[in-house]
Design a protein that fits this description.
Elements (H helix, E strand, L loop, with lengths): L15 E5 L19 H13 L4 E4 L4 H5 L8 E3 L4 E3 L5 E3 L5 H14 L5 E5 L2 E5 L7 H10 L5 E5 L2 E5 L5 H9 L8 E6 L5 H9 L3 E5 L9 E3 L2 H12 L4
Parallel strand pairs: 1-2, 1-10, 2-3, 10-11, 11-12
Antiparallel strand pairs: 3-4, 4-5, 6-7, 7-9, 8-9
Helix pairs in contact: 1-7, 5-6
The protein binds magnesium ion.
């Protein structure tokens, strides 16, 4: 089915709350998760937009928060680990407990990636991932290994990667949790994301009378709108900061 997915309307600064995925949305995907670069201009723009929205701007990522902190995003509210942990602008950090079954998965993933050139293991407080972007010939075996270790965990496929993580949370629960508390509560959520994991977020914002914005090519999606890539996101964010009229 072909769908029309128009560009999103501008934000309403008195009404909207903005939730932003990180990789593939704010910044282009990199071959290695740590190779992502966040330009100072983007960080400055996010903080100005957060001010414009009275603090109603949050990052919602599959990365863990300590990892995101390495990119110098500053004190923006953030939900990390697909909603397994969160931190508001006041700096208080909350996280779900780490399941024991993750340790066995970690051990297996470390051994697997060490034996295969180009397969990258990513350790997270509430998850373990194998990235096979650089070694697509190992994709099937990576996915099979993750399946083997998924008991009691959530198996999450992504862009050229597979992850097992703490069950019961996703981008939708992450956004819903933030929408329950100030300064987000009572506003209309808008969520921008690129990956299949962002579909839960699109569903959540739609049920809260907001809308989703897919970043990337047209596909079947719960998002109503679309921007083509992180450069288009940057331009859309910048347009909101231009003086009105
Ligand atoms: Mg993403």
């Amino acid at each position: 089915m072909t769908r029309t997915m128009p560009e999103p309307p501008p934000l309403d600064p008195s009404r909207d709350a903005l939730f932003l995925d990180f990789d593939g949305t704010l910044v282009p995907l990199a071959e290695r998760p740590e190779a992502v670069h966040v330009p100072d201009t983007l960080i400055e723009r996010l903080h100005r937009l957060a001010d414009r929205l009275d603090g109603r701007l949050a990052i919602v990522s599959g990365r863990y928060i300590a990892d995101l902190d390495g990119f110098g995003l500053g004190a923006l509210p953030v939900a990390g680990s697909h909603g397994g942990e969160w931190r508001l602008a006041d700096g208080e950090h909350c996280a779900l407990p780490r399941p024991k079954s993750l340790d066995a998965a970690r051990e297996a993933f470390v051994a697997f990636s060490a034996a295969r050139e180009g397969v990258i293991f990513e350790d997270k407080p509430l998850g373990a991932a194998l990235h096979f972007r650089l070694a697509p010939q190992h994709a099937d075996a990576s996915i099979a290994l993750a399946r083997e270790h998924a008991a009691g965990l959530h198996l999450q496929p992504g862009h050229e990667m597979i992850e097992v993580r703490v069950p019961g949370v996703h981008k939708g629960t992450a956004i819903a949790r933030l929408m329950d508390v100030p300064p987000f509560a009572g506003h209309r959520p808008v969520f921008l994301g690129d990956d299949v994991t962002d579909e839960d977020g699109f569903a959540a914002v739609t049920s809260l009378e907001g809308h989703g914005v897919l970043i990337g090519p047209v596909r079947e999606s719960r998002a109503a709108y679309r921007l083509s890539d992180p450069a288009a996101v940057k331009a859309w964010l910048a347009a909101m900061l231009e003086p009105a009229g």
